[in-house]
Design a protein that fits this description.
The model has no long low-confidence stretch (mean pLDDT 81). The chain is an all-alpha fold. Helices cover 87% and strands 0% of the residues. The protein has helices at residues 2-31, 35-46, 51-78, 80-88, 94-119, 123-148, 150-179, 188-224, 226-239, 244-263, 265-301, 310-335, 340-364, 366-388, 394-419, 424-445, 449-470.
């Protein structure tokens, strides 16, 4: 979606679009109240066995989230003029914040219903609603932006959110009818306390993301120019590919890991090990490729007018790698019911991020923001690993050491190639060599003997099938 929008809007209007996008994104983080985590985790454990308790969880939790999103959306719309004047320094931007309030409301209501689908293990329905929203944004925003400019881009986002909301509502209604779950508000006060007791520590860290990021966006726009916000949006857009697969399977992983933790400790450890190593290695391979191929990718997708975003794009890809690993560790703590350590690590990360970013933005601009994110994320990663270290089996500890080693080696090699100014003709072979090296190093040092045997067995079966098709034997 961002590729055609970048070409249609230009750097300055893309910066305004990015600012409104971050306002909506931060609003969806703030409006959850941690209720979504409690609904997803607790609902996965009781939806088959206790429909009344599940109905009370979904009814009370959904009501809390709905009221929260309604209040936030109304606040954005009511205070759109002060936001435009004092935060962005542009009174004319009040019109764009009106769109932000409407989009935030539809996104929030859809999120309430989609959280209910995850609680009931309706992953296919959740994916269908998500895909509907994504496809709507992909088609409607560029199409309407081509006809109506920046207003059309925001209108496309709002229509896509409405489509997602409609699909989620139909799916949720059918799911509730299937399991005969009565949505009730009985015991509202007690259920609210129970939900918030679990969800608030997890929410505290996530809420700070929105509260901290928004002032930073305003400061960055004033100091470095609104075009820098567009560069950051490009970096965020490309770096989302790094965490796409881990993020896509996260809802399923939370449910599966929660059930495994409650049933069998050995299953939980095995699933955690495979999940962490697989996501880390996949993200590292993609980040290495992005570090080497960002220059031609930016020119091909967004145009040469955005080549100044190159350092930001590379930096955001490495931030995405750290985020993938941190979110995996958060997921394991969440599955085990330990949300306090998640909150502590996240708060420390935000303190470091704020302290560094306000200091680094004036001399470094967009890269000051990226450095603050990266350094804060690394501290958060180390805190989460230290908190979980005594619960991790010895084999996985050794594998984590090796994963850190290959990450540092890949970062060093990619940095040397980038600062060396390699031409496009040299990037592809160098990238292929580095990615092959990462794969072979991980294969021989990260995987267990049984995993290597299983992979070789699968490769042998595939090879035999190929040989039979190419050289069939007549009997």
């Amino acid at each position: 979606m961002l590729v055609p929008l970048a070409r249609l809007l230009g750097p300055k209007q893309l910066g305004i679009y990015s600012l409104v996008f971050w306002l909506v994104q931060s609003g969806t983080m703030l409006g959850r109240l941690g209720v979504d985590a409690a609904m997803h985790r607790n609902g996965a454990q009781i939806y088959r066995t206790n429909p009344v308790a599940t109905g009370r969880l979904l009814g009370v939790g959904g009501t809390m989230m709905g009221l929260s999103f309604t209040a936030l959306s109304a606040a954005v719309w009511i205070w759109r003029s002060p936001l435009a004047e004092h935060w962005l320094g542009n009174k004319e931007a009040a019109e764009w914040f009106s769109y932000a309030g409407a989009i935030l409301f539809t996104e929030g209501m859809g999120l309430v219903l989609m959280t209910g689908l995850l609680s009931l293990h309706k992953f296919q329905n959740h994916s269908m609603a998500t895909a509907t929203g994504a496809l709507g944004r992909l088609l409607l925003s560029p199409l309407l932006a081509w006809r109506y400019g920046l207003s059309g881009a925001f209108l496309g986002l709002m229509l896509a959110s409405l489509l997602q909301l409609g699909v989620a509502a139909v799916s949720f209604y059918r799911s509730v009818q299937e399991y005969r779950i009565p949505l009730i508000l009985q015991g509202l006060w007690q259920e609210s306390q129970h939900i918030l007791r679990f969800g608030l520590p997890f929410y505290a860290g996530n809420a700070l993301i929105g509260l901290v990021t928004l002032p930073m966006m305003g400061e960055l726009g004033r100091v470095a120019g609104v075009e820098t916000l567009g560069q950051l949006r490009i970096g965020q857009s490309l770096s989302q590919i790094v965490g796409f697969l881990p993020g896509a399977i996260a809802p399923v992983a939370i449910s599966v890991l929660s059930e495994a933790h409650a049933a069998e400790a050995s299953d939980f450890q095995r699933l955690r090990s495979v999940h962490l190593r697989g996501n880390w290695l996949l993200a590292l391979t993609i980040v290495t490729f992005f570090s080497l191929a960002s220059r031609p990718l930016i020119g091909l997708l967004f145009g040469d007018a955005y080549q100044s975003a190159l350092p930001v794009v590379i930096g955001m890809s490495w931030v995405a790698l750290v985020t993938v690993v941190v979110e995996n560790l958060n997921l394991y703590s969440l599955s085990a019911g330990n949300t306090k350590v998640i909150a502590l690590a996240s708060i420390i990360q935000k303190v470091i991020f704020v302290s560094l970013t306000f200091w680094l933005i004036p001399p470094w601009g967009g890269m000051g923001f990226v450095f603050g994110l990266l350094i804060g994320g690394l501290f958060q990663l180390l805190i989460m690993i230290a908190a979980l270290w005594h619960k991790i089996e010895a084999l996985l500890r050794r594998q984590i050491y090796l994963l850190f080693l290959w990450s540092l080696v890949s970062f060093g090699c990619a940095h040397l190639v980038t600062i060396g100014g390699s031409k496009l003709s040299a990037i592809c072979p160098i990238g292929f060599i580095l990615m092959t090296f990462i794969f072979l190093a991980s294969f021989f040092s990260i995987l267990t003997i049984s995993e290597k045997y299983q992979i070789l067995l699968i490769a042998k079966k595939i090879g035999n099938k190929i040989c039979k098709k190419r050289w069939p034997t007549d009997f």
